[in-house]
Amino acid sequence: MLSLMGRIGARHSSSMLSVAGARLFSAATARAVANESAGVAAWTKPSAVFWVHRGYGGSRSWSTVAVGDNGDRNESRNRAENGGVSASDGNIKDEKAVVSYWGVPPSRITKEDGTEWKWTCFRPWETYKSDVTIDLKKHHAPTTWMDKLAFWTVKSLRWPTDIFFQTRYGCRAMMLETVAAVPGMVGGALLHCKSLRRFEHSGGWVKALLEEAENERMHLMTFMEVAKPKWYERALVMAVQGVFFNAYFLGYLISPKFAHRMVGYLEEEAIHSYTEFLKELDKGNIENVPAPAIAIDYWQLPADATLRDVVVVVRADEAHHRDVNHFASVRL
């Protein structure tokens, strides 16, 4: 009676797995498990399927990677080639890797020259050539009391920065980017929530501001290769970012116009700082080292680009951010 019930249970489990396979597992995995008519558990056949426990419980907490329908035939062929010893029986190991949760291997991304793309923080289609012909001297003259408040707020923030960094423009740029990457993320997140609350489009501003934040973050990733931050500079970044993030968040809730105007003036100061950086490079006071590899790929710079080339394109980016934020202060 027990053996009869075991055979019936095996047939039912095979048919159920064949049906559920398309939902729970890959198709090849379902076929491999369904062929286990002897009732042997699937995880006793490492040549057929690998299981990965996700830790949530139930059928959704398991992921599979099938090695193909020919797993059993490959095992038999390995036994024949190795004198009757399989890869799992001898010292020969047939190791398989779980490549992703759904068993889909990642696509191989290459550059135009065919070499492998090594960056995960950005992709080839996100790279660009910076427009260095943009007007760097453009300035929005403060007219209203809100403009003047934003202007003098930024000027007051520049004073302690000049005292602390002086002519260490590499460290200065690194610190500047840790602050400059905050407004775009804060503004984009708040406009995103506003769009959801009001059931209306954002007019493209959410994407524009988030792209600005990402661009500023890439500036930081670049200058980290040039100026290695010391422990006290890292501590200063944590303190400044904590204060600035919360202050800007509250300021944006009160008046987006004021917040964007302040960022516009902040970008004008960034242009000035990078211009002074270039002067020091031209004088020879700062070594014009080769450009970091991440900068060459991100801005599509020539292979022999230098630090000066990087500063030029970063300054052009800041000029674009200046115009965007001054325009946003009028439109939003």
TrEMBL record:
Subcellular location field = Mitochondrion inner membrane
Q: What is one GO biological process annotated to this record?
A: alternative respiration
- Subcellular location, principal: mitochondrion
Q: Output compositional bias ranges, type Basic and acidic residues.
A: 70-80
Which residue ranges does the record annotate as region Disordered? 67-90
GO CC list: mitochondrial inner membrane; respiratory chain complex
Q: Which CDD domains match?
A: AOX
* Co-factor binding details: Binds 2 iron ions per subunit.
Q: What is this protein called?
A: Ubiquinol oxidase
Question: What superkingdom heads the lineage?
Answer: Eukaryota
Q: Which Pfam families match?
A: AOX
Report which reactions are catalysed by this protein: 2 a ubiquinol + O2 = 2 a ubiquinone + 2 H2O
Q: How does it sit in the membrane?
A: Multi-pass membrane protein
- Give the EC number(s) under which this enzyme is classified: 1.10.3.11
User: What GO terms are given for molecular function?
Assistant: alternative oxidase activity; metal ion binding; superoxide-generating NADPH oxidase activity; ubiquinol:oxygen oxidoreductase activity
Q: How does it assemble?
A: Homodimer; disulfide-linked.
Assigned protein family: Belongs to the alternative oxidase family.
Write the record's keywords in alphabetical order, separated by commas.
Answer: Electron transport, Iron, Membrane, Metal-binding, Mitochondrion, Mitochondrion inner membrane, Oxidoreductase, Respiratory chain, Transit peptide, Transmembrane, Transmembrane helix, Transport
The coenzyme or cofactor needed here is: Fe cation
Q: Does Mitochondrion appear among the keywords?
A: yes
